[in-house]
Amino acid sequence: MRVKYYLFFLGLLLCMPIYGQQLSGINGKITDGTGQPLPGVNVIEKGTTNGVQSDFDGKFSLKVSSKKAILVVSYIGFQIKEVSVNGQVNLSIKLEEDSAKLDEVVVVGYGSVKKKDLTGSVVSIGAAKLEGRSNTNVLQSLGGQAAGVQITQSQGAPGLAPTIKIRGASSINAGTTPLYVIDGIPLEDSTTNSTDTGISGGSNLSFNRNPLNSINPNDIESIDILKDASSAAIYGSRGANGVVIITTKQGKAGKTKIDAIFESGFSQVNRKTDMMSSSEFIAFNTAARNNSWATIVAANPSATRGLNVTVPVEFSDPAWIARIGNGTDWQDVALRTAQNSNFQLSASGGTEKTQFMTSLGYIKSEGVVDSNTYERINVRSNLKHKISDKVRIGMNVGLSRIKEAPYGTGGKSDVVGLALQSDPFFPLYVETGSLGFKDPASIWNTFSKYGFQLWHPYSLTREAIAEKRTNVSMVTSFVEWDIIKDLTFKTSASSNIENTVHDFYWNAGQNWGYSGWVPAQADFKTLQSNNWISESTVNYNKTFNENHNLNVLAGFSAQEQRTDMSSMTAGSFPNDLVHTLNAGVVNAGNTFSEEWSLLSYLARANYSYKGKYLATAAIRADGSSRFGANNKWGYFPSGSLAWRMSEESFLKDVSWLTNLKVRLSYGATGNNSIPNYGSIGLLGYSPYVSSGTVNQGIYTSNFADKNLKWEKTGQTNFGVDFSVFDGRIKFNGDIYYSKTKDLLLNVPIPILSGFTSTLTNIGELENRGYEINLGTVNFDGKFKWTTDFNIFANRNKVLKLGVSDAPIDINVSSMTSRTAVGEAIGMYYGYIVDGVIMSKAELDSKAYPVWPGSEAGDPKVRDVNNDGKINSGDRTYLGNYQPNFQWGLTNNFSYSGFELSVLLRGSQGGEILNHTARYLKSGVGGGNRNMYSVVNNYWKSDAEPGNGMIPKPRMLPTTVHDFGSSYWVEDGSFVRIQNIRLGYNLPKTLVEKMKISNIKLYVNMENVHVFSDYLGYDPESSTYQSGAMVGYDYGAYPNPFTATVGLNVSF
Amino acid sequence: MKKIIYIMLFCNLFLLGCSSDFLDKAPISNANEENFYKSQKDIETAMWSAYNSLYLLNGPESLPSFYGELMSDNAYSDNAAGRIQDYESFELHTMKVDNELVYNFWNNYYKSIYIVNNIIVSAEKLDFASRDALIGEAKFLRALYYFDMVRAWGDVPLVITPISIADAYAQGRTPKDQVYAQIIKDLEFAAAKLPVKTSQRFVGAASQEAANTLLGKVYLTVGNKAKAAETLLKVYGKFSLVPYADLWNLTKKNGASSIFEIQYKGGVSNPYSLYWAMFTPVDNRVVTAWGGGFNQVTNDLWNAYEPTDPRRDLSIQNGYQTPSGSTVNVKFSIKWKDAKAPVNGLREASDNNFIILRYADVLLMLTEATSDPKYLNEVRARVGLPAYGAIGYPAQYNTVALALEHEAQVEFACEFHRWFDLIRTGRAIPVIKSSGKNITTTEAKLLLPIPFLVINQNPGVITQNEAYK
User: Fold this and answer.
1) Closest CA to A138 of A248, A225, A191, A215
2) Three-class SS of residue A358?
3) What is the pTM assigned to this prediction?
4) Which InterPro entries does the record cross-reference, listed alphabetically (chain A) (predicted)?
5) What would the pLDDT profile of A810-848 be if each residue is shown by its tens digit?
6) Per residue in A264-321, pLDDT tens?
């Protein structure tokens, strides 16, 4: 309230002296959108200096010169409104908040433009759409809110960044992550896949390095996403995957505003995976052992029955089985209900000369996986000072410290995936107090000889001690100088320093909880990254003859980064008392460093004629240390045109039409995420021993390619924006076509050359798609209801691969990912299984060919090439992760202090490769792993074939049981209730008594429910985040449901 | 204020001025190809990586191991994880063109040959005193690799210089006679230029005797017994037979019998050997931390030993006890036992070397080349067994050829000799038929398939072996 009081005086100062004839007296009341009175609002009769300000109740009286006078009503933070008096004497004026107005400013990189003047395709998301979301990374709040921007939370541990893809995947090997520009500092997302799996998964320091991980979402003022190539081209060789521009909050002149936020909540996995109970598993495993033995003995009647196909005596003992009961659901051991809390304090304000914003944030979040925790402290100070009328300086400092215990984040063979595979009949603790049956002193040890499996979750979470600590400091300072009128020079220097340390220790033997007794081991890893950038621009902005506006920008930037990594491992610890490496024997140590540098020149011109015809042209030249000697510099031009048809005279009088604009653009962008030294013939190291000495040898480890360069994307975009009925219905639509050339591929070459592949710029692919945004104001009174809907689709197709267009196959754990001409990137490739062979009679009828050696109950494989035989020639495409279309729907309701927001998000038509099905659904008991409960419906006999989909249990695979097939591919479509926020603003009258300007109570719920048929935890789960293996779920960390209660107090 | 602006402007101008250097970033953590292979020191450094290939090409999971041992009557596979059928198809002779192990072997050989070729071609451009001796070492290794390849695959593409991608596409399979000719040429060069073992460059380096021993074996393989005898006699008497147990004694590495031996060093951060970890019974967790189950010993091999032959119990362990007291009946090799080896990821980081050529081999080959059993009898005398032809000699080995076959089986048990020997002497087909494996095979199926992926990549140029068409 005091802020408004202050603004009232500010308004008085601005108010001009009152002159002129005063004929007609009018009274009025001014309110905001929710009906609250607005004091201190300027009311001026148009074309005069006659005006007043509203009082504390929002009321004013004014004498105007004529009954047809027009009042101009303005107030900071609200849209200016013109009101015709039309002879009325009592006016009720409602002001709309600024955020909804057409004159909204969009940040476009090295500057900003008014939204109405935008010629490219840019999504702008303000703080209002991000408030109250309990996410650690702001990208998580964008899901479903921006057309054309796919946000996928592939793993659900706190602090793990989601994957973001803007307008599909434009690259196979050079990365698909956008460029992040944080307060002007361009930062590449150098995240790699979490390829270290299992216990060491969390220790891969190159994984989860999204630059926004260290940014406090509460500090963010706006996020602007440059989607089309004409917008992104100003970032040249780094723009091909789009650009995400983050602007942090700045203080505003006025009374100091203090905000405090307290949040507390919990997370849990509501969507558990249905696994077999102990008794079901015993029945299944018994059948598997008997079936395999039957096959063996049929082939060789004199064979002896091995332990791997022998049924344990206990399994035939009903009393024993009854005693075990349901056994242990290892998911319940691995997962928990996790607590989280968040505390935010910020102050902002300043004077006309100096403004500041400073904030402190503290988040503590437990993961739903046992022992997994995440803690972050953020401090930020943004300062701006006017030295003189012509010179301004400023500085933004952001510091963060993250401490996490990254259990379960390996995404493959880690806590969660292994818990699902563990056999349910084992107890939580065996009678000796050990975790598992491998303890030789335990009676349970008798099961060792049969090959049963247990990876006790605690052996990975409580017997291991892991901690990762990251410090990030991001500092930028700048000077702006108005050299002459209309010409501004700006120069800035920034640095981003990142330091990460990771400790890990695994207790000796893991209390017998792991699949084998592993001796104590420890490792220590560090990563240091130093990035600095210097940028200078000159900007000339002038309007000629009222009608022609020209804005020209030219600039220069130099950026450099060095990354140093080290790792050390130790073993032979005498006991588990001390976990640092000095207590054991260091057995490996390594350091590695790399650098890159980028030099750029850029220029852009915006021209508009009468605000009707708009044109933008831009070019950037990038020189990069990564490019080969023959291709040091790349040039990235772009151009765009827009026509605001609604400003034309023939449409000006159409009263219901608020805005109509068409846009057309073309731009060239690059992707420079190629290896730092890919263009240079590197030498590798390999040792040989002599007389007990290890001698380091050297050999050539890759081909030199002096022509190596960026991948180049050209994109055409056509868009229409219109809004009608005073902006109550708004529509934006875009269609685009982009073609990427010079794709960096690891082209397979004959090994006779010494190498199986070489990295070359060869290959082409295209992306085409559409994006539609529709916003409506359904009710606009005391009860307000707005709806935002977006839908977007992208089709990705490979056009060319290498010299012979040979498909690129990646084989991982029996599944093939194939990238081939005419198909999308990373197709699942394997056999099609059409259920099972239902009976012996069906098999004997030879109605269809079968895999050699098949029996009734074994998988029925489709003869894809119709050659009457089932063999490797019958493999085919089985789908891919890319959806046909995605959509988001937000409904906001407000009614006298209450606010409700519901965000739904959906994806249709993508497939997920359930890689855990390789064990959990295979029906093959050879690994002695637990199975999905759907496997209970397995083929038992000709008379009892189950549902005809699940093969007969076996211990040993005989046909395609362990080959990648359609049996592992599931529909990835889903509808998700992504977010529900309910807020209540305490009545002003109440809070004013407490000398507080606002108190808001709210409940925030993330990932409320997923409608999906997927057998695993989440249809968006993926072990890999980039490249051709996205969509492979090999036991990814589940995405939990999170509910938070919050209190926001503003002073 | 103006000062700050000037300083910043100055900095920018400075950057503009040095832009060309700014973009030159040489690798920090990798050496750069252009400034290497330029001196004697560089060639010597490069040679370590050439020898490093031996770890892969003659390790427990290598072509000599699976072709030389697992395909024979000596061994079977009992591994539980991975592509079981790929291992089994060596054991049971059910080889298919998509066997991933065969594909890996193919790639590993050509990667190693590329490293050697690079060294030879680079060294030939230089001039220093020990140049030819170093080239001799490289050529010895190249001959060793091609010899294993030509025996397993028949005709193979013969590449003796680094070649371009286009040339790699043009290169088809070279007839095996030409491959053998190149092997002989390389070994003759090595034998001429290499120093004798007593003055070898380092312990474990290729020597004149190693070249001659291998050359002798090559001559036997191509059927030139006279040249074989002549070559092997150059080595005869230069070495001695150490007590059988000493051959794998960790304190007696590179002993008086050793002609060419792969050098390992135990410990998890060293290039350690994996024979012990991989040849012990699968998932035993008693004998070793885990156990790979490769090349388990068949009853045929166990029974081949004469009752008083001490070599059996020095070579093979029959069964082991579980902690619960039960006995697991499985026979496995203990030649590379290293009880003190530290464990790295469930595998013993063992210290044992692996002997590729040793003196007993020279002696048996001399008998094969000359039909004179006296060399053979030296080997038998070493373990106190009756000489061939003497009283007490097993009656069933009634020819020198059969005596040699028997002696080599037990002397070199588990050392990757058996199947090569049987093929060389033309005995492979009947022996595998009458063994416990009872496999009927043909001459054509004795060769491995050319990997399907290799043909697929370059169809028409690379052809398939007859049995797999």
Assistant:
1) A215
2) strand
3) 0.79
4) Beta-barrel_TonB_sf, CarboxyPept-like_regulatory, Plug_dom, Plug_dom_sf, TonB-dep_OMP_SusC/RagA, TonB-dep_OMP_SusC/RagA_CS, TonB-dep_rcpt-like
5) 888 788 899 999 999 999 999 999 999 999 999 999 999
6) 999 999 999 999 999 999 999 999 999 888 888 887 788 788 888 899 999 999 999 9
Helices B359-370 and B374-382: crossing angle, nearest 10°?
150
* Mean pLDDT, residues A1011-1035 taken together: 88
Q: What is the largest CA-CA distance in chain B?
A: 110
User: Cα-flanking dihedrals φ and ψ of residue A967, to 5°?
Assistant: -60, -25
Contact B263 A517 (CB under 8 A): no
Residue B272 DSSP label: -
C-alpha span between B336 and B276 (Å, rounded): 5
Best mutation target, B265, B452, B458, to test chain A (most A CBs within 10 A) = B265
Question: Does the beta-carbon distance from B204 to A689 stay under 8 Å?
Answer: yes
Residue spans of the domains in chain A: they are 2-99, 105-263
B33:A681 CB<8 A: yes
| Residue B7 forms contact with A (CB below 8 Å) | no
Q: Which of A684, A670, A683 is nearest to A761 (CA)?
A: A670
Q: Which residues of A touch B323 (CB under 8 A)?
A: 440, 445
How high is the ipTM of this complex? 0.92
* CATH numeric code, A2-99: 2.60.40.1120
Q: Which residue of B has its CA nearest to A588?
A: B269
Interface test with B, best of A688, A814, A818, A929 (most B CBs within 10 A): A688
Per the CB < 8 A criterion, the answer to whether A444 and A494 are in contact is no
Q: How many Å apart are CA A457 and CA A233, to the nearest integer?
A: 48
Distance CA A457, CA A395 (A): 47
CA dist B251 and A988 (Å) reads 89
CATH number for B38-247+436-468 (one of 3.40.50.300, 1.20.140.10, 1.25.40.390, 3.10.350.10): it is 1.25.40.390
How many Cβ atoms sit within 10 Å of the Cβ of residue A574? 11
Q: Please tell me the distance in Å from A677's CA to the nearest CA on chain B.
A: 6
Report the pLDDT averaged over residues A261-265.
Answer: 95
Give me A809's structure tokens: 């196959």
Judged by CB atoms closer than 8 Å, whether chains meet at B23 and A623 is answered as: yes
The residues spanned by each domain of chain B are 38-247+436-468, 276-342
The verdict on a CB contact (< 8 Å) between B268 and A519 is no
Place of tokens 């320091």: A205
Instruction: Please state the φ and ψ torsions of residue A292, each to the nearest 5 degrees.
Output: -70, -40
- How many other β-carbons are positioned within 10 Å of the β-carbon of residue B327? 10
What is the per-residue pLDDT across B9-64, written as a single tens digit (0 to 9) for each?
Answer: 555 555 554 555 777 777 777 667 667 888 999 999 999 999 999 999 999 999 99
Integer Cα distance of A359 and A380 in angstroms = 5
For the stretch A616-633, pLDDT in tens is 999 999 998 888 878 889
Tell me whether residue A586 is exposed, middle or buried, using C-beta atoms within 10 angstroms of its C-beta: 0 to 12, 13 to 18, 19 or more.
middle
CATH architecture of the domain A105-263 equals Beta Complex (2.170)
Band of pLDDT at residue A414, cut at 50, 70 and 90? confident
Best of A302, A387, A753, A875 to disrupt the B interface (most B CBs within 10 Å) is A753
SS (H, E, C) A409-469: CCCCCCHHHHHHHCCCCCCCCCCCCCCCCCCCCCHHHHHHHHCCCCCCHHHHHCCEEEEEE
Asked whether the beta carbons of B74 and B414 are under 8 A apart, the reply is: yes
pLDDT in tens, B121-162: 999 999 999 999 999 999 999 999 999 999 999 999 999 998
Distance separating alpha carbons of residues A786 and A900, to the nearest angstrom: 11
Side-chain half-sphere CA neighbours of A337 within 13 A: 4
Given an 8 Å threshold on Cβ–Cβ distance, is B12 in contact with A556?
yes
